[in-house]
Amino acid sequence: MTGSGTSFEITVNTGSEEGELGLEFLGGDAVTDFAGNGVNSTTEFYTVDRRQPIPNLETAGGSPTNSNSIAFTVDFNEPVFGFDQGDVSISSGSVSNFAGSTDSYSFDVEGATDGDALLVQVPAGGAMDAGGNLNEASQQISLAIDRTNPTLLITLDGTSPTNSDAIIFDLEFSESVVGLSNDDLSTSGSLSSAVKFGITGSDANYQITATLGDGTVDGTISLIVSGDVSDPAGNGLDPTESALVEVDNTAPIAVLADRVDPSPTNLTTVLFNVQFSEPVSGFSDEDTELIAPDLSGTTVSDVTPFGESGFIVSVFTGTGTGPLQLRVLDDDSVADAAGNVLGGAGAGNGELDGETYFINEGDLGPTGLTTQQIIDFLNGENPYGFDSSLFDVNQDGVIDAADAVANGL
Question: Closest Cα partner for 73 from 34, 49, 110, 109?
């Protein structure tokens, strides 16, 4: 205590607690003026406040967000002063529209960096209450900023062409998406009508089954994804279309098995050109049969792809004289790229008998026949399977035997 006369100053230690603190004068009649009058006193009270203001930071926006302007509020548990937008900490963007007073404030954060986490906080020490206590730090809010539209890759789960009536597409988004439904799916191509969809998957990976309205026809189909598909931040998907898928339900057929070499012939190996209605796989020597009742030791020695949809079949002619024919067999081992088997499902329905060679062991003239064979033919005998086009015909339509023999036919 210091002072004298009529004025004194008393310093009081407030201790460590909070609450009301008053000074009571207990002097009574012991303290008088010079005339002996006692001192009347009143008690003054102080409020002792050691509690720091606590800010509560909130935002109505969710995370992730694609908003360019995000609103925040700050509510203190007691009135404060000195709090302004410079007392707000943000990791990117800028603070705008700062407003408020006493214990309630608001502001916006604009232009936060796309792809980053926006961190917002009210640091400690920016605001003061009436007792001179500086505020505590608020909780930190983290928001994922995403303004990038998702992208989509659509691939066929299988091969094209296909003969399936259920086409399966794999969907791979660049990020997790929401809102995918049948309403977001459509098709294009000649088979796009009456298609039914089935959806499985989640997050960024889905599978779509498109079941065709008519699974027996040929055509094309593609899948289109659009509509209300978006990422969790609300960025929409641009319409995306798959590649066209070819649907082929037509079975291939063998269209010819023609001779390549002249006939008659005494070659030890002859060639057949086997052609199918479309490219096929699985064709081998096991899919052929040689019909040569008068020959022995014949065998298919090689099968070589030829052209877009054909094969050259090499045949060893063996020994003997007589016809040699190639038959294309069907045991459902030959199929097109879509999986349709030769002639359709079922063995034997796609067989084809090809052209016939006449194999001759003798020394041949220009026609490929011996003189004796010509004479036999002119005498009305034709055990060899050749035809009259090999011979000269006179004006009367009669084979001129003398002329034929004279010319070495």
Answer: 109
DSSP H helical segments within 230-387, as ranges?
A: 371-378
Residues 199/181, Cβ–Cβ less than 8 Å: yes
CATH of domain 152-247: 2.60.40
Distance from C-alpha of 27 to C-alpha of 9, rounded to nearest angstrom:
15
Residue range 254-359, CATH number: 2.60.40.10
Pairing of strands 19-22, 45-48: antiparallel
Q: Which amino acid is present at 303?
A: V
Residues of the chain short of pLDDT 70, as ranges, are 5-6, 8, 12, 14-33, 38-43, 45-46, 48, 362-409
Q: Which architecture characterizes domain 55-144 according to CATH?
A: Sandwich (2.60)
Instruction: With beta carbons less than 8 A apart as the criterion, state whether 405 and 375 touch.
Output: yes
Phi, psi of 396 (to 5 degrees): -85, 0
pTM of the model: 0.72
Separation of alpha carbons 345 and 323, rounded Å: 32
CA dist 381 and 221 (Å) reads: 61
Task: Order across the sheet with 152-156: list the strands.
Answer: 152-156, 166-173, 205-211, 196-202
What pLDDT is attached to residue 406?
41
What whole-number distance in Å separates Cα of residue 226 and Cα of residue 207? 15
